[in-house]
Amino acid sequence: MTIAVGLSGGIDSSIAACLLRDQGHEVIGLTMKLYDGTGTKLAKKTACFGPGGEDNIEDARRLCRSLGVPHHVIDLSREYNETVLAYFREEYLRGRTPNPCLKCNRHMKFGLLIEKAWASGIRFDKYATGHYALTVYHPETGRYLLKKGVDVKKEQSYFLALLRQEQLERAVFPLGGLTKDDVRRMAREKGLPVLAKKESQDFYRGDYADLFEKRPEAGDIVDKNGTILGKHRGICFYTIGQRRGLGVSHSEPLYVVGIDKAANRIVVGTEGDLYSEGLIARNLNWISMPGPCGGPLRLKARIRYLHTEQPATVTAYEAAGIAGDGALKTGTADEPSGAGMPVRVVFDRPQRAVTPGQFVVLYDGDTVAAGGIIERSF
After folding, report:
1. Angle formed by the axes of helices 53-67 and 11-22, nearest 10°
2. In contact, 91 and 375? CB cutoff 8 Å
3. CA 343: distance to chain centroid?
4. Helix axes 11-22, 180-190, angle to 10 degrees
5. Low-confidence spans in the chain with pLDDT less than 70
6. Three-class secondary structure of residue 195 per DSSP
7. So what's the pLDDT on residue 82?
8. Is the separation of the CB atoms in 26 and 66 below 8 Å?
9. pLDDT digits 0-9 by tens, 315-341
10. Which helix (H) or strand (E) holds 117?
């Protein structure tokens, strides 16, 4: 079988390629070119986007030479700017907190990269990455399931929750059954030079102000009563739950508890103000099941990557202005397929810093049921 491997130049995708080659597969290396060379002020650090991306491409090229497999660089810089970066900017300017990694996986890494490779005549049967996750075909439902990787500290199913059925059908995750320690050991045994490379999962490592064409407008920091406590440097630099960098003094610690886009204000409050009973999510990409039709679902909800998923009741939700696919778009990229009725997620226990714009991923045991965009908390 011919398997293309999405190579980032890092240790995980490198070991994925090594494992597949050792298993006897014909391996092809594919690397995305995401940075077009503009914006000289961008930080050159290890990340997916920025000037440092050229170093990542060269690392991937060297790996393929050492393995004796072909390597192709697919230029997606224009599409990345129009889709992922535009979405990133738009959401922050709306007072929301985006997650570009989920968008990139859905649209770039498992979408346009494969499409452009095929269009250029590169042929392969499956597509692999170095994510710590697993896929399984469920014959009774006819659906491809996305499951957690076995390494509880590293598993990355959260970042893959927007993948469609046709994307999961061709996906291979060689590291899903391994731990990060296993992968580091293999890299040492194989003498891979990327072992010494600093790891980064950030899409950009630098001041986010670098990514905006003009500096966002400053405004007031207020408490819940509207009393002005200080000034902010632009709503795009703040997120729910943030404590550092507020520049205001108070008798007890203050956190960002709200972002008022219309008034260009950051609202701060105390720790207790950060907790929510639940959330409304839209544009759900259902993976293991068709949706919440027929009654409430008991699932576990993860509201950000480093959040431990919590028991919750999930039901379909109808409200004016939140109508599922086609409603409340970011204006930059089509939403996941399978998006239908928004859902209401009620936690068994209140959760801290539920953040609009982030993604909630719903789990049924170790299987991803669905992923969608957090519209608001309550």
Report:
1. 20
2. no
3. 20
4. 70
5. 39-41, 43-47, 195-201, 319-340
6. helix
7. 95
8. no
9. 998 764 554 443 333 333 344 443 468
10. helix 113-119
